[in-house]
Amino acid sequence: MSILNFNVGVLGHVDSGKTSLAKALSTVASTNAFDKNPQSQERGITLDLGFSSFTIDMPEHLTNSNYSQLQITLVDCPGHASLIRTIIGGAQIIDLMLLVIDITKGIQTQTAECLIIGEITCDKMLVVLNKIDLIEEDQRQATIDKMTKRLRKTFESTKFPQTPIIPCSAVSSLNLNELVSTLQQHVYIPRRSATGPFIFSVDHCFSIRGQGTVMTGTVLSGSVRINDSIEIVSLKEVRKVKSMQMFRKPIDRSIQGDRIGLCVTQFDPDKLERGIVSTPGVIKIFHGLIIRVNKVKHFKHDIESRTKFHITCGHATVMGKIVLFIDHSTEENNNDDQFNYGKEYEATDQYSSEHSTENKHIYALIELESPIACQLQSIMIGSRLDTDIHANTCRLAFYGHVLDGFIDTDYLNKELPSKLRVYKRKEKVGFIDRVVDDQTIIGKDLFQKETNINTFVNFKVELTPRGEQGFIESSFGQSGKFKVRFMNGLSNETKQLFNNAKGRKQQPKTAATTTDADVESNEPPERIRIVLKFNKYLFQEKTVISQ
What average pLDDT does the segment 261-275 reach? Predict the structure, then answer.
């Protein structure tokens, strides 16, 4: 009998009744379900991911599929603000999200963050309006209608404008049948493939004396069989699969999307709380990442380049500094799954709200403070988890898919200089020292005395305000002055303006020669500026510039 495993994330604000709901729906629980953790019981809140399941008939719209039974795996995510990284990790393995809302409180801060995570990580959502048993029966329907109307208004601006809203009570089981029926109607066949490398996201690890070490998690891609060799990426160790279970039922094969427990030959489980297990050699450990950046619209601040964020990929969260750059090219990128190293990109200081409305791709190099094991195309979320959890503000800043990564610890010096072309626009301003002839001037104040002016020979400059264009021909003397040639010559207006400014500067003013006009006008004479614009390339061992 073929069983479709469908992963449903249960997310919401702390104390909205998520765990009670999972418990009321489930018939089989994993070793860590329903707050079995002693700390969870002591504090009365969910502190870690919990997994449980129930089995129902295949819905009518899927009766022609290859599956005969539907197993719903519930991923109970914690709701406390301080555990947002655990929520993000749990949300990346789900096929549909149940957003649980306490009807007596409505949308709260972490409800909103969970909604954003849902928008990033999945395409299907149901809303559970929980705790309706706390509303007096004669006021219940009116309260449900009022809250539903408010929520509809909120969801209008999200990717879930028509999401079903199901009122129920997990504690009294009121209306749970309608919830299960609605869930059944919205189940779909996720993309599942047994081909490709085996990649397994581990969320719990423990040992069983005499049997081995058990890793529980979700199969992200490929398949695995008993006796296969698998690699524990962070430990760089290979182990053999001794046995497998899916919610306490022995199985001999598992494919993408399945929630399983893998028993392998013994290793210390304390070394692997969470992580990635895969076919040997498939997963790399990256010290730097490149992503295409998508700004979370509810993040109130601009995303500043060269600042640090919490970077979450899978179950791992580390600090990372981002360097932002823009693709100005007009050509279409037909492959958004790969980063194009053949282009040149412009560095930008920030990703503002205005950028979100422009049709330009913004990318980021993320310099990780600690390495991350992940596969390309993994979802990555950048956040500010050090923000006060009591502040009513969104901490999720941006997200994107991993387009490329760097495995060498010294990638900034060894790989980037020859691989990534990112430039910063620069502008220098100098002034005319003297006019040599109709086509030549000597300039000053554009360079320092120690500057190697030969680097800028043949670079174009422009005179303002008249706009004549020339090029730097050579250095002049040892003090940082330089010679500029204008092939079309200097205009008479420019020469006159320079002479006027020079004359006023040189002529001393005495009490006898000062006029009323001189007293009224304190403005200095207009000086002609020499403007040099060029591009300076980042990530280069030696200074590289161009125009």
Answer: 94
Spatial CB neighbours of 184, under 8 Å, sequence gap ≥ 6: 56, 59, 70
Return d(Cα 283, Cα 497) in angstroms, integer. Answer: 67
Residues of the chain within CATH 2.40.30.10 domain(s) are 199-278, 284-420
Signed CA dihedral, 86, 92, 98, 103: sign only = positive
Q: Are 293 and 325 in contact (CB under 8 A)?
A: no
Torsion from C-alpha of 192, 197, 203, 207, nearest 10 degrees: 120
Q: What are phi and psi of 118, to 5 degrees?
A: -60, -40
Q: Which two tokens stand for residue 230?
A: 């698998």
Query: Beta strand 223-225 with 253-255: parallel, antiparallel or unpaired?
Result: antiparallel
- In the chain, the N- to C-terminal Cα span, in Å, equals 67
Q: Which residue has the higher pLDDT, 66 or 420?
A: 420
Domain 284-420 class, CATH top level: mainly beta
Tokens at residue 311, please? 């970077």
Contact between 184 and 61 (Cβ < 8 Å)? no
Q: What is the DSSP letter of 337?
A: T
CB-CB contact of 233 with 278 (8 Å): yes
* DSSP-assigned beta bridge partners for residue 223: 255
Amino acid, res. 6: F
pLDDT at 47 over 50: no
Tokens of 182: 């609605």
* CATH number 3.40.50.300 is the correct assignment for the domain at 2-186: yes
Question: In terms of C-beta density within 10 A (0-12 exposed, 13-18 middle, 19 or more buried), how is residue 251 classed?
Answer: middle
> Which of 380, 378, 375, 364 is CA-nearest to residue 321?
364
Percent of the chain surpassing pLDDT 90: 77
Nearest to 299 by CA among 385, 389, 393: 393
Q: Is the peptide bond before 465 cis (omega within 30 degrees of 0)?
A: yes
What's the confidence (pLDDT) of residue 360? 86
The fourth-level CATH superfamily of domain 425-499+526-546 is: translation elongation factor selb, chain A, domain 4 (2.40.10.190)
372 sits in which H/E element: strand 361-374
Residues 6+ apart with CB under 8 A from 278: 197, 198, 199, 200, 230, 231, 233
State the pLDDT at residue 355: 67
Per DSSP, the residues of 414-482 read HTHHHH--EEEEEEEEEEEEEEEETTEEEEESSS-TT--GGGGTT-EEEEETT--EEEEEEEETTTTEE
Nearest C-alpha neighbor of 432 from the set 400, 398, 470: 470
Q: Say if residues 388 and 81 touch (Cβ distance below 8 Å).
A: no
SS3 assignment, position 19? helix
Q: Which fold has domain 199-278?
A: Elongation Factor Tu (Ef-tu); domain 3 (2.40.30)
Average pLDDT over residues 357-384: 92
Contact call for residues 387 and 395 (beta carbons, < 8 A) = yes
Q: What is the CA radius of gyration of the chain?
A: 32
